[in-house]
Amino acid sequence: MSSREIPGQLITERDPAAATTEAAERIATALIEALATRGRATLALSGGNTPRAAYATLARRAGVDWSRVDVYWVDERAVPPDDDRSNYRWAKATLLDAAPIAPEHVHRMPADAPDLESAARSYEKVVREGVPVDVDGVSAFDVMVLGVGDDGHTASLFPGDRTIDVTDRSVIAVGAQRGLEARLTFTRTVIQHARVVLVLVVGAHKRAALARAWSREGDIHETPSRLVRDCKGQVLWIADEPAAATA
Ligand code: 6PG
Question: Domain residues of the chain, as ranges?
């Protein structure tokens, strides 16, 4: 009997294509609901490979008034915005260039800046100015898309890193580590205050990380994606069968 205790709703799809379609539809629905409720919507995107197809599908989804949506990033690598490793580059190729989103509503995370700490502070200001705060005074994104690494990280909050413990900031710099470039990332605080968090995970190689994220007991320092367990908003896990299977 697995000691799974999945925080939020789990939608399991038969394969990556079905998970992609479902993710795009859920993002669109959450945006449309935010637009109807609050008149505007804020969307924060994660990078990596998994969400690219969902972003491309989302761009083609009718019914989203993109003129009232502002796009931000959950994290970004310290590379130029046209670099193949850039989360912005791929969001631009899949979503921004395909949906009618005006440049002034695109808020790129400047992780290519020479001083990452001051870049973090400047993006905190961008978020503070652009994203309405909730009752706790924290900028509350309407929709936030997350992924999970096969090591259990989410955003750029990595296992064994003290960045998971930072709660008095919204954006921080993450030093180069484990062969990865330096990054900027949202902290758990911003992530946990998003109104709708959609976690898209596909592939058998993610199964063990998901099992750790979903187990009743676990260490957030070992599996930072466990931070989703304390999200205040609605959490939707969308996974294909290989990823969601009981380990
Ligand atoms: C990043 C992402 C990161 C991603 C996971 C999963 O910049 O790498 O924001 O948090 O969601 O690493 O990445 P894949 O989808 O490529 O497995």
Answer: 22-244
